[in-house]
Amino acid sequence: MSQLNSQPTQSLSRRKLFAGASVVGAVAAVATVVPAIRQTEPTATASAKAPAKGGGYSLTEHVKLYYKTTLV
Questions:
Q1: Domain containing 64: what range?
Q2: How far is the CA of 26 from the CAs of 12, 48, 61, in angstroms?
Q3: Closest CA to 58 of 72, 41, 44, 43
Q4: CA distance 63 to 48
Q5: Which residues lie closer than 8 Å to 34 by C-beta, 6 or more apart?
Q6: How many structural domains compose the chain?
């Protein structure tokens, strides 16, 4: 009987199982998002000028991107 108890048993509790699964899920989510962040285009520069009289419509890259997203 003493030999049976001499070996420590390693049991996997539910708490450890769910903690491990959460960590794996978080790492997978981050690994999915990181390449998308690196591939985005740089933001608009300050070289875009406002209309001379302070108003009006200007077709900028931002507006063109918006129109592309509204296409069905």
A1: 10-70
A2: 20, 39, 34
A3: 44
A4: 12
A5: none
A6: 1
